[in-house]
Amino acid sequence: xxQRHPVQNNAMMFITTxxxxxxxxxxxxxxxREAVDSLYRxxxxxxxxxxxxxIMPDHCHFLLNVPSPESISRIMRVYKYGVCFNLGMSxxxxxxxxxxxxxxxxxxxxxxxxxxVKAGLVATPEEYPWSSASGRWDVKELEGW
Length: 145
What we know:
This protein is of the alpha+beta class.
């Protein structure tokens, strides 16, 4: 699960990571809850700013900013390992993840929040419990972007 990325501190990053073979592991509510809880546990150990996220049945999207000295590679490695460990699944994730540096957060936030709607899982973003759009999770307000 190791992937090198150039140092990307203090940049707004759109992260996508998929389950292995796109198996819908997070279709199970307990697994989805663990994916969200793990995100916040990693944030406590390796601080980063989380602006929006969604845990889909077979992939996850995150909009975040990683201050020095942390790195996105370390955060994703710890996150993916923690979810695997806590779910008791050794072959959960694809080995890589996708990072895109963005300058406009509005379209990306909309994309993240509309993902469950486009997939036909809910009628509105707020109905999907495993997303920052639901209002159930603590995320940083988007200021100055």
